[in-house]
Write a structure and sequence with these properties.
Distance between the termini: 31 Å
Number of strands: 7
Number of domains: 2
Order of helices and strands: EHHEEEHEHEE
Shape: globular
Strand order of the largest sheet: 1-2-3-4-5-7-6
Radius of gyration: 15 Å
Strand content: 35-45%
Number of helices: 4
Mean pLDDT: 96
Structural class: alpha+beta
Helix content: 25-40%
């Protein structure tokens, strides 16, 4: 297997990324093309990155600037094809997003996730990649499902 290559997402990546979304159930894959459209047209500061391995699109990262905040960004989506999880591809995507933001002089990156047991590995992933739990909003997503906000200074 070749090392992962991180690139700006293109229309050629959509089918592969839809398969990633179908496997991870992060959000419905049929939403992807519409979500990507403003980025692909160059109409937004937000950016999408795709992880390629052996010529296939196997992971994605979507990061947006926080409104009314100076240099603060939010990573709204991060997903890797389930059969490739645990191989540090997510970490490579996160580092690429962080580097892109550092290069633009940005200050912080936040990530929102769930406080349920089903997201314990997700929270562990962010902690292992230098993110600190900054806040927890009880019962945010649903009764008994806290919103956990992680933060990393760039």
């Amino acid at each position: 297997m070749t090392n992962p290559i991180i690139k700006a997402t293109s229309t050629d990546d959509i089918a592969g990324l839809q398969a990633v979304l179908d496997g991870t159930e992060l959000f419905p894959s049929e939403m992807l093309a519409e979500m990507l459209a403003p980025y692909l047209r160059g109409e937004t500061e937000a950016f999408w990155l795709t992880c390629h391995r052996n010529g296939e699109a196997v992971g994605l990262c979507y990061t947006v600037p926080e409104d009314l905040a100076d240099g603060a960004w939010n990573m709204l989506a991060l997903a890797v094809r389930p059969d490739l999880q645990g191989k540090r591809l997510g970490a490579v995507l996160v580092r690429a997003a962080e580097q892109r933001l550092k290069d633009k002089g940005q200050r912080i990156l936040i990530v929102d996730t769930s406080g349920t047991d089903g997201f314990a590995l997700t929270r562990q992933f962010y902690a292992q990649n230098g993110y600190e739990e900054e806040a927890r909003i009880r019962d945010f997503w649903a009764e008994g499902d806290d919103k956990v906000i992680f933060r990393k200074a760039l």
